[in-house]
Predict the 3D structure of the following.
Amino acid sequence: MGVGISGWRLAAAVARAGQLGVVSGTALPVTLARQLAIGDPEGHVRRALACFPLPGVAKRVHDRYVATADTRPGDRFRAVPRPTLQPGAALVELTVVANFVEVFLAKEGHDGPVGINYLEKIQLPTLPSLYGAMLAGVDVVLMGAGVPARIPSVLDELAEHERASLPVAVTGTHDAKYATSFDPQQLLGEHPPPAVSRPDFVAIVSSATLARYLARAASGSPDGFVVETPVAGGHNAPPRDRTARDSTGQPLYGPRDQLDLDAIAKLGRPFWLAGGYATPQRLAQAQAAGAAGVQVGTAFALCDESGLAEPLRQQLLAAVAAGSTTVHTDPVASPTGFPFKVAALADTLSDPTVYEQRDRRCDLGYLREPYRRPDGRVGYRCPAEPVNDYVRKGGDAADTHGRMCLCNGLVANLGLGQIRHDGYAEPPLLTAGDDLTHLTRLLTDGTASYTARDVIDHLLAPAPTPSAPRAC
């Protein structure tokens, strides 16, 4: 669901309906800071900050980013520090608070379950993010896009307010090992530790091999799995044959990429299927295969409670209704090297003209790659940053071709895109699953929109039974 599309409003609506509502945990420090910068017009952030268990921390975050008397619409947003191996105290506080706020608001006023989704490949902010979500009582942590083997033990440690660490991959190293750490006691200071419960952990996988590995990991096993197919939106696992492409340049998934659901079922843990399962028929098929249910993203991404900026949501819905949009699995768009699904829409980065007109820059930094510099220190680079900068840091210029700034593009989807000094506004970048074009099934009776409850009711409707063959 990218950044903020599955925000607290959507997660709350799904949880109120008795299902697991999940918020995206990606780049929450940026989106919280920018909500404060536009004045928190509905007061939701301030209400959540008032309930944060460390009032001094909440006040510092508020005062650092809140709109001032001379703030004007269209002003440039104040910069948020980029994640690093050793973040400063201000970024740690902002990260903890931002995750608390999102989960607190999602859980407010009901007792339905709420989860939060992180990407394993975004390693640097994970620990304070988890702690902030746990302070708000998150019920489930979901994580994919990598091998999240250490997360079960990290959740155990953070539930006891103990220091936790995670290994970090640093390019150009062999024997040296790097890690990021977080000590809740440094945040708490003299305050007594608040009550925290350990959430369940659900790993997002795309193969039985990875599921088996995680189930046997020495650092603890997931409580369940989301098993994702390549038609799901956002990042996809690459195919086994990374060189295979179809006539449009999209990755080709072959027999070796087929899911072995029997092997996953034998692990004895609940699993949910994701990617193309947003119909009653597909839900029934998933349950028949042993799944506990399904995970749905694209259908919720365009509902009324989605975090997608309203003009952009209506534009995309209109394109879906008109049959004028497509989804392309781009093998190079993401700086991570994972295939990334891009929805075609005018005035977004999917338009080659818009892409070429954007000046490359990396000022949010969530997808930066840590690398070992010649002097032994750790530097950070991103193939979507200015080409000369990337090459100067030891990167290959060929790796920059076609790369898109997902960080800025996905934040712009929320209506919170950065305004540059020259007035240039960061353009959006939409992602969706392959079934985007099938959402017309939710636009019934001439309606131009639908709610999260409509999606759930559609999924839980009895699947039609196949018609009996007609006699000749």
In short: Residues 320 and 438 are 8 Å apart (CA to CA). The first helix runs from residue 8 to 16. The chain is about 30% helix and 10% strand.
